[in-house]
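$ ./design --mode recover --in tokens.txt
reading tokens...
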């Protein structure tokens, strides 16, 4: 009779003495908590960039790419949860992406590769969240006080101060209520923005609709791959193992329920925002559709109260997003500096946490103020970070763990996705970095305008 797998006692002992695991990634959550975390990590104000992504693809290709990205990421996250469940049943529960990859692939360098990519994602999203929050404050200020003297970097500094305070929330699980509110906020501002776009499209001041792509073939190709990278960033997660780590064991099957909750919200929000925004503004869509609704050279295309309420909802959700994507960085900090033999709020652990998290948020805020590239940041983060972690590694991990026969459909589907998105990631990296270089001529350090 086969013996059930025995837990790795040495691994469990290490986890019990690992402050990052015990404090930041404590495992107490239910499946709906994972759904809240996933939704906050994926469904954010970056959906306001969807019309901007469509302008590099057009209607048909845009719809196709949006749908493919949705299907592939759901499939990818499902495979990742299956691999994590398999390892847990075998007595090797993994709570970090980097440790899972190194264990399954048996390569020490993979551990550091995933750390590097996750750091790039976390920092990029942290910078983008602070930048967009600062822009939200600037939009409200410019409407309440036209011609005011405050600059974008000053609003970014205000957001950074708030983020420093919120960053002291010690555990990922503690964010569950905040992330539930984030889910509600995402639905709220999506409906408001969609309503505003419909109002703008039907008004007498409706902009001229032009859905044509760029005339140059090379520019069209580069724009298409930049748009694909932006879509990858919008659908990207990169922290699914850390989210699953917050589930109370056994976690088997719980993450799939969380994914279904998350993708229900994705279906409602992503398509409505993309269609309504691109329908109205076409190839003039801004990287933040709110700015398209409030042009500098004409009257507002939507009621001020609607835009104002949407901006408030977005601003509030951005704090939750910044916190979610900072958890991997905070977990690394806690693992290296905290001591589980002392309490979570003991002076021994509290002071290093306060100093390190504050410095991290200040760095993100400084970079957001210095380099205001919201759309371009999305493209680079998607190509360099999300595509490897969300479109390539999960399929590789599944094939290595479950070893499907080479004659099976699953094996070839996974291989095709890995090859296709590796190519898309390489091209997306070139096109996104190219656009960053081109946009570098349009701004100065600590500019008061976000470059598209």
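writing sequence...
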């Amino acid at each position: 009779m086969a013996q059930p797998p025995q837990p790795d006692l040495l691994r469990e002992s290490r986890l019990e003495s690992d402050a990052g695991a015990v404090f930041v990634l404590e495992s107490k959550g239910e499946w709906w908590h994972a759904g809240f975390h996933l939704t906050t990590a994926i469904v954010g104000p970056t959906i306001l960039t969807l019309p901007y992504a469509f302008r590099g693809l057009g209607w048909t290709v845009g719809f196709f790419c949006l749908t493919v990205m949705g299907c592939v990421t759901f499939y990818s996250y499902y495979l990742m949860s299956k691999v994590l469940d398999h390892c847990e049943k075998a007595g090797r529960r993994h709570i970090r992406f980097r440790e899972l990859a190194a264990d399954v692939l048996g390569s020490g360098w993979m551990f550091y590769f995933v750390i590097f990519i996750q750091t790039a994602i976390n920092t990029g999203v942290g910078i983008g969240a602070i930048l967009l929050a600062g822009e939200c404050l600037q939009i409200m200020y410019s409407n309440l006080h036209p011609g005011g003297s405050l600059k974008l970097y000053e609003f970014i500094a205000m957001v950074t101060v708030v983020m420093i305070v919120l960053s002291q929330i010690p555990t990922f699980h503690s964010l569950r209520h905040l992330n539930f509110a984030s889910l509600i906020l995402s639905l709220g501002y999506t409906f408001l923005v969609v309503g505003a776009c419909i109002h703008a499209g039907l008004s007498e001041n409706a902009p001229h609709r032009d859905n044509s792509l760029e005339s140059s073939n090379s520019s069209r190709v580069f724009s298409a791959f930049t748009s694909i990278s932006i879509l990858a960033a919008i659908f990207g997660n990169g922290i699914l193992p850390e989210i699953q780590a917050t589930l109370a064991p056994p976690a088997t099957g719980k993450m799939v329920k969380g994914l279904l909750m998350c993708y229900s919200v994705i279906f409602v929000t992503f398509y409505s925002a993309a269609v309504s925004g691109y329908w109205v503004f076409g190839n003039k869509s801004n990287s933040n559709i709110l700015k398209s609704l409030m042009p500098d050279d004409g009257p507002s295309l939507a009621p001020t109260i609607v835009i104002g309420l949407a901006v408030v909802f977005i601003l509030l959700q951005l704090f939750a997003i910044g916190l979610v994507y900072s958890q991997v960085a905070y977990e690394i900090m806690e693992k290296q500096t905290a001591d589980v033999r002392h309490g979570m709020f003991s002076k021994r652990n509290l002071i290093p946490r306060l100093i390190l998290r504050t410095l991290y948020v200040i760095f993100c805020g400084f970079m957001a103020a210095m380099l205001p590239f919201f759309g371009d940041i999305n493209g680079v983060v998607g190509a360099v970070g999300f595509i490897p972690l969300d479109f390539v590694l999960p399929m590789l991990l599944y094939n290595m763990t479950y070893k499907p026969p080479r004659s099976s459909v699953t094996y070839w589907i996974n291989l095709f996705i890995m090859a296709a998105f590796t190519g898309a990631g390489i091209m997306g990296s070139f096109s996104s970095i190219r656009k960053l270089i081109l946009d570098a001529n349009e701004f100065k350090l600590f500019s008061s305008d976000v470059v598209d």
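exit 0
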